[in-house]
Amino acid sequence: MREVLEIWNGEAVPAGEVPVISVARFQAIVSEVLAAGGRMSALFGRPAPSGRVLVTAVLTDDPEGRLGLLATEVDRRWPSLAARCPALQAFERELCEQYGVVPDGHPWLKPLRFEPERRAVPEGTGMPGDYPFFQVEGEEIHEVAVGPVHAGIIEPGHFRFQCHGEKVIHLEIALGYQHRGLERLLEGGPARKSLRLAESVAGDTAVGHALAYCRSLEALAGVEAPPRASYLRGIALELERLANHVGDLGMLAGDVGFQPTAAACGALRAEFLNATAEICGNRFGRGLVVPGGVRFDLAPDEAVRLSVKVNRAFERVREAASLFFESASARNRTDGTGVVSRELCDALGLVGPAARACGASRDVRRDHPFGVYRFAHLPVATADTGDVFARAWVRWLEAERSSAFVAERLGTLPEGPVRLEVPPLPPERLAVSLVEGWRGEIAHVALTHEEGRIERYKVVDPSFHNWMGLALALRGEQVSDFPLCNKSFNLSYAGHDL
Amino acid sequence: MIDILRARLRFGSETVDYPDGPARFPERFRGRPVIDGVRCADGCSLCAETCPTDAIHDVGRSSMALDLGRCVFCGECSEACRHGAITFTRDYRLAMRSREELLIPTGRDEALLARALDARMRSLFGRSLRLRQVSAGGCNGCEAELNATGNVQFDLSRFGVQFVASPRHADGIVVTGPVTENMLLALQKTYEAVPPPRIVVAVGACAISGGVFAGSPVAHDGVSSELLGVPIDLFIPGCPPHPITLLDGLLRLLGRVEGDELRLAGTGIVTAAEPVGGELGAPPDESPGGAP
Predict the structure, then answer these.
(1) Are A195 and B52 an interchain contact pair (Cβ–Cβ within 8 Å)?
(2) Which three-class secondary structure state does DSSP give residue B99?
(3) Does ipTM top 0.90?
(4) Which tens digit of pLDDT belongs to each residue from A202-230?
(5) Is the pLDDT of residue B283 over 60?
(6) By Cβ atoms counted within 10 A, which residue in A296, A320, B137, B283 is the most buried?
(7) pLDDT of residue A118
(8) Environment class of residue A306 by beta-carbon count within 10 Å: exposed (0-12), middle (13-18) or buried (19+)?
(9) What's the Cα-to-Cα distance from A429 to each of A9, A18, A127, A305, A385, rounded to whole Å?
(10) CATH class of the domain defined by A224-421
(11) Cβ B141–A154 below 8 Å, yes or no?
């Protein structure tokens, strides 16, 4: 019997075809695939008719461009794989919190989001932040607590540092403050507000999550957006990447006190947000991507003017960024700060620029291409040092490539419609949709029940994989370097908390 | 060093002309909506059936209204409407002082502008206002635009308004997000830590009404008088509100922007504002439609 069902990114299969195997075989396959360099893109539960929990895994083979689906039924407890495969630690905690599946032997079995209805599981705790933090003991050890309300205009999260003098021995990050019950609000859909909810997984990734959502519905319904729409979607996705990467370069410059780049990039980021608003009226691309295509089109002369605007803005980014990268003082603060080794990166299953900065060449746009990326290839940018500098450098390289991509696509928009009708969803199908957002891999898994409505909708924001990377990057660093390290990851609280 | 100075000179001033000059918006920007229930056809309620946040009430009746506090400005309603009864203008002035004022009744085609604080509060905060932002389930959209008000482009601090690190240093709080159960306590504590007199500003559809998260069992449908025990001083609608809308609301509250002159300019990149849905759907019905 086949134990893993292989599919492509953006493919839908009958839900019943996903092989359900024994827990032992399931775990053996998962740990084998992860040890061989595969990744876990999504792992989620749902109630099985037997009263147990049906756990489905989406394993990812990047070099082959294939996804593997497998499932198993779990009865309240199962052995934890997290000690051997740290990339699973958050997934196992999530399953425990949402469905009461206790992973025996989990090295860090703490609440993940403190979901209010389920707060009793697993450690009898109350509010987020009110639970036993890991403590380092010793005469000169002290603790620094930050959050949930931070100093700037930032989303809430709690950071607990165990320090010896200025040196951070351990950092624990407690999240969940932003938990809005998003996955459950999507159940029973597609409803009027489903797409708006997808855009609100993380407001700075509205295009990325809307695209993942729309592609999952299109996969279920068996339709493909017209070519012109996939070009416009690609343009919007790269403009989103540009705006955020340029903004991040400015924020990183600000955090090391390098004002020229900080000031310039703050304003230049807006150029790309405004370019998105020229297309659809909203600076974050809300309302642009819809199931079946896009809602707005560009006339030929408009595309030309937009292309000129993006090119001009990017030339100024080039100038502002080179000031930063050529400044000895900025290099001094970013070189060797917040290092994540390649081994750690792979063990934690990091994604996006944070992984590429460690030398891991993974990018959904190349490995599992979707839409316009199947015809237009973007080179994958990597660096080797895994430090703050590398994460800044990878952003810069990606911004440069995105800018060229946008200009080129605007000049070669295919003719034709930009939207087609999406028929009602067929019953009992499962679709996986991966999109490379600016933070990394966005994974959406949609599953319909017998009436063709959404039974379970799983969202995995790239931040879900990467938060542990930030916590470990801080070890041995100065506590005062936390803002800089944090910014170099720039993870989403809302995307993690859902 | 010389290179840095040269680059700095080449960059020049980036600060927007607003409020002394016009605010520049893309052609397709969706600002204050105008509804005209007289044009509604009998029994048609496509707009309300399309709206993701149930912002449109009493379609076709004289009590028809659009709730700016719920509206996410997606524009789906005006696309769905075949009678031209809902249009989105590019008017960026959306902030109001009370929840009731956010209801735009049918037939109103001018903006209701936020009133300034009373003389005493204005004398305290008019030239120096320090705010503490609390994200209570915000998706980082409103937070991003609030951050943008501090950059060299929008430069809110030129008016003496700044976001500060501690509520103890603040004159008020700015709330975003639907107020998740997990952030309620932190929000209340932050508010309590602000020394009185203090103000509360709700930014974005989520903070005003819950937005797309309205009805979530793990959130509170936004910040309300019940949650904090005090009235909210200013509501700034949007999903998220544009930085100019944020500036306009805060400056009107402080009495630093007055009058009803709308100074709006285009950017010249895109000229037409035709959503694609209009072409896909049936041709617009030119008849005036049934009277309410």
Answers:
(1) yes
(2) coil
(3) yes
(4) 999 999 999 999 999 999 999 999 999 99
(5) no
(6) B137
(7) 59
(8) buried
(9) 15, 10, 37, 43, 43
(10) mainly alpha
(11) no
At residue B6, the pLDDT reads: 87
| Within a domain: B16 | no
Residue B279, pLDDT > 70, answer no
Low-confidence residues in chain A, pLDDT < 50: 119-120
B163 and B199 in a single domain? The answer is yes
3-class SS of residue B247: helix
Please give the CATH number for the structural domain made up of A5-137. 3.30.460.80
Distance from first CA to last CA of chain A, Å, rounded? 36
Q: Does B275 share its domain with B186? A: no
Q: Does A304 touch chain B (CB under 8 A)?
A: no
Tokens of A394: 């990878």
Question: Looking at the DSSP assignment, which residues form a beta bridge with residue A145?
Answer: A160
Q: Do A302 and B182 touch (CB under 8 A)?
A: no
* DSSP string computed for A90-150: HHHHHHHHHH--EEET-TT---SS--GGGTTTTT---STT-S------STTEEEEEE-SS-
pLDDT tens figures, A399-451: 999 999 999 999 999 999 999 999 999 999 999 999 999 999 999 999 999 99
DSSP state of A405: H
Query: Count of CB atoms within 10 A of residue A488's CB?
Result: 28
Question: Does A344 contact B at CB distance below 8 Å?
Answer: no
The reply to whether B123 and B244 lie within a common domain is: yes
* Residue A167 token pair: 């040196």
Return the closest-CA partner of residue A69 out of A16, A24, A132, A143: A16
Residue A4: partners with Cβ closer than 8 Å, 6 or more residues away: A19, A29, A59, A68, A69, A70
Q: Which residues contact B174 (CB under 8 A, 6 or more apart)?
A: B131, B132, B133, B134, B146, B163, B201, B203
In a domain, B261, yes or no: no
- Considering only CB atoms, which chain A residues are within 8 Å of B29? 277, 281
The residue-averaged pLDDT of B92-101 equals: 94
Q: What radius of gyration, in Å, describes the C-alpha atoms of chain B?
A: 20
